[in-house]
Amino acid sequence: MRAPVLRAGWLTQAFVHRAYSPGEVQRLLPRGLEVDTFDGAAWVGVTAFVMAGVRPQGSPLGLPSFAETNLRTYVRDRDGRDGLRFLSVEVACPVMPAARAVGVPYHLGRLTVARDGETLTCTGIRHGGGPRHDLAVRPGAPLRPTPRDVWLTSRWRAYTRRFGALRETPVEHAPWPLRTARLERAEETLTRAAGLPPSGSEPIAHFSDGVRGVRLGVPRPLRHTSPEGGSR
Q1: What DSSP element (H or E) covers 114?
Q2: Inter-residue long-range contacts of 101-104, CB under 8 Å, 24+ positions, other chains counted
Q3: How many whole angstroms separate alpha carbon 169 and alpha carbon 151?
Q4: CB 186 within 8 A of CB 45
Q5: In a domain, 1, yes or no
Q6: Which domain holds residue 53?
Q7: How buried is residue 85: exposed, middle or buried, by Cβ count under 10 Å (0-12/13-18/19+)?
Q8: Which residue in 14, 20, 128, 183 has a CA-CA distance of 20 to 30 Å to 223?
Q9: What digits encode the pLDDT tens for the residues 158-207?
Q10: What is the pLDDT of residues 15-28, one digit of tens each?
């Protein structure tokens, strides 16, 4: 990425994924995005972490650290490029919802990410008494990622939609240092609020101590390559 606009660290991250039928997820996606699948299933993840050192590129000053939890799924655009689609983003920092201007579905709430002995607990409730979550994971040993582990945790662009137009935001960071995780509790109403039924599948949990030096680019309108080599 030649010209990042923001830098940050994503620390102490818990991933909790469940499988869905592709049709259940596809109906939540805007035109121009197709659900991505692994082993025939669509996947929806609740990821909770600490956002640290958010600052504009070149600025020595950043925001104080704060908790964030996002509900995300995995998609491809019309050219087959994979990425994330956020169904909702819960955040404890009052300035972040300004990013709704570019289509990021931020919601302000009360969130915590805390350790209780060997267990990481991530809780939150949206302001106004809306959706909530209560996750508890026990991190384990370093993990040699399988193809599914990589597929669930590694995406390098996020797709948003604003005023009817799709946009993509490029993201760069080092590979996640993944660890095994035992899920002790996973209670949430984020998926229901997003329009998803109960999954019916066993959740899959991962943990990462996180990555620093995350670089985010400028959200830009999505342009598609035509079969003749032009763009539209």
Answers
A1: strand 106-116
A2: 101/162, 102/160, 102/162, 102/167, 102/169, 102/219, 103/160, 103/161, 103/162, 103/167, 103/219, 104/160
A3: 19
A4: no
A5: no
A6: 6-219
A7: buried
A8: 20
A9: 999 988 889 999 999 999 999 999 999 999 999 999 999 999 899 999 99
A10: 999 999 999 999 99
Domain count, the chain: 1
**β-sheet bridge partners, residue 9:** 52
Binning the chain into helix, strand and coil, the percentages to the nearest 5 are: 10, 55, 35
pLDDT at position 12 is 97
Does 224 reside within a domain?
A: no
- What the block records as the tokens of 42 is 């669509």
For the chain, percent of residues with pLDDT exceeding 90? 79
198 lies in some domain: yes
Q: What is the pLDDT of residues 45-76, one digit of tens each?
A: 999 999 999 998 888 778 899 999 999 999 99
- Asked whether residue 230 is assigned to any structural domain, the reply reads no
CA pseudo-torsion sign 192, 126, 105, 83: negative
